[in-house]
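User: I'm writing a tutorial on reading structure tokens. Could you give me a worked example: one chain, its sequence, then its tokens, then a sentence or two explaining what the tokens reveal?
Assistant: Sure. Here is the example chain.
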Amino acid sequence: MTEMEYFKPERGQRPGANEDPRLDWWRAAKFGMFIHWGVYSIPAGVWKGEHIPGIGEWIMLRAEIPIPEYEKLAPQFNPVKYDAEQIVKLAKQAGQKYIVLTSKHHDGFCMFGSEETDYNIVDATPYGRDILKDLADACAREGIKLGLYYSQTQDWHHPDGFGNTWDFNESEQDFGDYIDNYVKPQVREILTNYGPICLIWFDTPRIIERHQSQELLNLVHSIQPDCLVCGRLGNKLGDYATAQDNAIPPDLQAEIDWETPATINDTWGFKTHDHNWKSTTQLIQNLVDIVSKGGNYLLNIGPDAQGAIPEPSVERLQAMGAWLDVHGESIYGTEPGPIQGEADYRTTQKGDSVYLHVFDWPASGRLVLPELDVKSTTWLDARVDAPLSVNCAGDSTTILGPAAAPNEHVTVIKLT
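And here are its predicted structure tokens:
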């Protein structure tokens, strides 16, 4: 992962927001699970006793680890605690509607059985199983859509991939051959061998040329026409936009379909020393903020070297799911609400219903909104037993509720 300019599609490259029916499921889903996992979970941010700065999956580059040394991680990779069913059920508990797994990250190690290289989970590790196949099967059983991340430009293991300047001479590399004879065959593999793939999440299009991005886009759609391609394919091509990592646009982005990829702590790939976990409240408010501006939230987990999910991630995802069990009506299948740009609350809308999400409940219990034609107000959580009234007068709408916030994370009022 890396930061990238917010993707703005060029005119005529694809239909605008809400015009391409292939995205209908994705627009309704709102919330997905990212999974960053690979052999980098073994060093987990530490190399030769030194804490390496930065995100966990970039350790090979940050420490400039020679390929022969880094390759020694593969024979140690035996994730006996990996349970595809458990991961998919956690996503369902969290209220996430799709999963995106790193099939190949920048370190070049493949988390699927590939005919193009032995440097993969099946052939290079004692585990010897195709974890992607297990995940695809579990997703199919549980009705969760499966997407795949694939690093199309950076590959620090392949002699013609981009980014490894300590083992290779860039002037002698043939990036075009890498795209044509390695990337494309592997993209074909992951789109052919694992059933329906809902989206391909490309990343870091550092040096890829426009015709190469276009050819990859065409390849994906030729194999699975309904498979979406994220905007980090490069050259302003793709089916939807991708914000910077962990970034939420400051205002409504109604003219495009977009998504924020985000971490629960600071890293994507597992790091033993990263305990900077975001609170459940912050994560729920991020979800609401993003959805209120027309986006999707792709929230990451990073399993450890044995395949176990860090417990703080599990706890927070389950808590988010508990909130969504009650308030999901205000998130799934909604559009941005009529009130934008307020600090203390956000709005979403579905049909004649506007959902007011209050982040900072006033001690007075009094909420003053811009003018709305409100016929009735109800707590979205039917368990809340507190008075609630509305008064529409002049150019404002006043809602009066209790002094204390009915929900510890985000309180939702349904306005009809």
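What the tokens reveal: Confidence is low (pLDDT under 50) at residues 1-9, 11-15. The chain has two domains: 21-330, 337-415.
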